[in-house]
Amino acid sequence: MRVHRSRSGPARHFRRPTATVAAILLTLLALLCGTVGTATAAGPAATPGKDAPEPTHPGQDWAGSQVAKHEGGTGAPVAPSVQASVEGVDVSGHQGNVAWSTLWNSGVKFAYVKATESTSYINPYFAQQYNGSYNVGMIRGAYHFALPNTSSGAAQANYFVDHGGGWSKDGKTLPGALDMEYNPYGATCYGMSATALVNWMKDWFATYKARTGRDAVIYTSTNWWKQCTGNYAGFGSINPLWIPRYGSSVGELPAGWGFHTIWQYTSTGPTVGDHNLFNGAYDRLQALANG
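The structure corresponding to this sequence follows.
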């Protein structure tokens, strides 16, 4: 006996009302719109530690460029009366190719060369200046011009080491130097608190030491240091001080340092302008290079 099955009955169990389907679609659409709306409102995520743009005129920023602008003293150099000292210079990209033989023959025995600024600038004349000073017999080192408001201390220390700021125990390479001075692009203290600036430097120094095994030199003026770090004294027993002061004496030192290691005593010296004196005899300069 054949059993007749209904084709319409079971089908009704699987058919969803049009209103229900429309409701589901509207719900999904609302969820999608809400997700998109949230992403748009939040905008792009901020990059930690990068609040200011990269430098626009790094070729004009060198050790003491802002010190001279803010503190003066750019006249004819006064011959310092220092007995146990060694003559040196510091140079950067704005000087181009440097006449190293002329400087050597005039008695210059060491040099610091700007390597980097922030995490975007490399001195285009670095090879000629860094290798050229070494080739004539000088003890030389590299320095980094800091912009603490563009990226972290660790990022800038790594960039420096990766682009010429390393160290080797060859008797002719000084530890790297960190140039902390007046901001050439805005607020004197980079819009940062004294604590934030000190912590930034701690980050830079720790990273540099981890990469090279050396404690870096710090370049800074007493006036800037007082204004921007609250005259912090914590680096004095660790980091050698390279201080600018254009006159007949080194003057007051920042807190924490009982003596200076290098004195930038003029910005208008012969051949390259910036001239320095190492505070000690030549064998002490060699000792600083050897670590």
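The chain has a mean pLDDT of 82.
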